[in-house]
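Problem 12. The chain below contains 213 residues. Write out its predicted structure in token notation.
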Amino acid sequence: MPAAPDISITHYRHFLLVAELRSFRAAAARAFRSQPALSLSIREMEQRLGQPLFERGNRNTLTRFGQDCLPLARELVEHHDRVAGALFGLANNGAGTLTMASVATVATHWLPELVATYRERYPAVALRLFDDNSEGVERMVLAGEVELGVCSPVLRDRRLSFEPLLRDAFGLVCHRGHPLAARKSVTWREIADLPLVGTVAHRQLADYPQAAF
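Solution.
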């Protein structure tokens, strides 16, 4: 089996820039290189591959071979960057596992995008996520089962440090025939004696009898 051509990651980056920007001048500016230097990099890559990547009459247009190379080159550069990030994390104690707990609503609606961003920034860190109600999340933090939690403050334990991240609203759901159905807002005091089905979080309102829904 013949040896693979000696092509650096810089060659691949230059190839991707020219292919995506469709301009040697723009690619050179993006790479902070002179245009002759970038053209030389592309020629070196073509010579080592043994095939032209761009049409001779129109250097901004990919050949069929160049089109076939494009997704592979992009995959290689992305893989290189992931591995480099992981190695950098290991070298700087950035690897490990982050364990956290969250209430279900946050875990469903807020965390997916945040987790995706975190994974891109810290690819060497493994994430473990548990969901529970607010009281359960706080108990897991206190027990050392997780490193941090996202929830409403329930236990008011002095050992916990709470940092507000966002505000949410409580709502009352009742049958349309109920006397309260026509009301725009109600206070906790007005519904305190009614049979309720709710989460642990609604118990917080017991401390605020004038709180309105």
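Discussion. Residues 208-213 have pLDDT under 50 and may be disordered. Students who got a different answer should revisit the alignment rule from Section 12.3.
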